[in-house]
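Curious: explain these tokens?
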Amino acid sequence: MLTARETGLFLPLIHSKLKKLIYLLLIVLGSCSEQVQPNAQMAPPVGKLIKTDSAWKAELSPEEYAVLRGKATEAPFTGEYDQFWDSGVYVCKACGLELFRSETKFDASCGWPSFYQGIDKRHIKEVRDTSYGMDRIEIQCARCEGHLGHVFNDGPGEEGLRYCVNSLSLGFQKKKE
């Protein structure tokens, strides 16, 4: 709540009723700037999933663990989803968070599944990655922080992005017909 002192105004000489009116006006105007527009859709943030390394090792295969928790990269053109074109939703292999729709998948001929758009920007965390002498943007699952791959700015979509993802980081939920 704003006070007269916080607004920089000095109101001791103004009539009591006028002072109250100005004070009320300051409160109303101050709160208007914080209101959400009626058409804005505000979804809750993705909750974090935190597990110990031993719990992850028990749930994931050694290969999945190496990629999702150790940030390894599977060999190109070897992944289950590289040339997989069924309709549905790709999810995080570790926690099941929805990441990509099959409609946004395209063949980038790079050896890994590629998407030009995620389901929700809040589901994919971007982190600067300077490993191996390169400057890239790593993508992680926003819920469990599992390593997914990297995002590049050479994609075909409206935003020009290519999410290059390890198949071992993904699960797939077939579209119900």
Residues 88 and 174 are 4 Å apart (CA to CA). The beta strands are 88-92, 98-101, 105-106, 114-115, 124-129, 136-141, 147-152, 162-165, 170-174.
